[in-house]
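Hi R.,

As promised on Friday, here is the backbone we talked about, encoded as structure tokens. Could you run it through your design pipeline when you get a chance and send me back a sequence?
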């Protein structure tokens, strides 16, 4: 990375925590009239609306039940939908070290009002962050330039000295255009990140 670092801005999914929506599908499939292989594709438009803040949680669950033919309760659907995450321990260790060094840490994520309360409670690493921008609260999603503008303004970031870490190339490209020092992360090659930021962790 070129410039001195004043802060880190992390994506969440497949960076700090890995996720697999198939886990949710496996929990609800036997109570859906829709074939298992069709559940996720049919839920995707609704999930996008949830992550944009265009649907509330109960509105999403009701619409999802209608689309999939789910016969369980809203509470059962939420429980199945929320628990799809696994901690990426190498990143958690890095965040711990950065926090100990008093480095400002922030989050920028496309996510929703079901997942945020769940993962922030389940994984203590999220307590290390100084602020967060979530798509469902912002009304826009990466890679739209607007959400990066919101992050810079609301989190008080100096983009040129902030390292932004994301796993999706389109988001990384948008981060570069917003002025961040950007690293496209692959959890299968964590050492590449450590080398880029010159971290011994």
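Update: got your reply. Pasting your designed sequence below so it's all in one thread:
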């Amino acid at each position: 990375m070129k410039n001195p670092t004043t802060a880190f801005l992390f994506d969440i999914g497949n960076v700090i925590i890995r996720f697999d929506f198939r886990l949710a599908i496996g929990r609800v499939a036997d109570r859906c009239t829709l074939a298992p292989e069709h559940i996720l594709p049919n839920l995707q438009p609704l999930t996008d609306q949830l992550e944009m803040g265009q649907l509330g949680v109960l509105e999403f669950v009701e619409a999802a039940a209608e689309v999939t033919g789910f016969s369980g309760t809203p509470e059962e659907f939420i429980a199945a939908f929320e628990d799809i995450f696994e901690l990426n321990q190498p990143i958690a260790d890095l965040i711990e070290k950065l926090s100990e060094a008093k480095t400002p840490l922030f989050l920028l994520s496309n996510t929703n009002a079901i997942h945020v309360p769940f993962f922030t409670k389940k994984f203590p690493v999220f307590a290390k962050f100084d602020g967060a921008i979530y798509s469902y609260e912002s009304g826009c999603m990466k890679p739209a330039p607007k959400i990066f503008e919101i992050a810079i303004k609301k989190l008080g970031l100096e983009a040129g000295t902030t390292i932004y870490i994301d796993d999706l190339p389109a988001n990384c490209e948008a981060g570069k255009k917003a002025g961040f020092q950007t690293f496209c992360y692959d959890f299968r090659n964590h050492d590449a990140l450590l080398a880029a930021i010159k971290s011994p962790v």
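One thing I noticed while checking it: The first strand starts at residue 7 and ends at 10.

Thanks again,
M.
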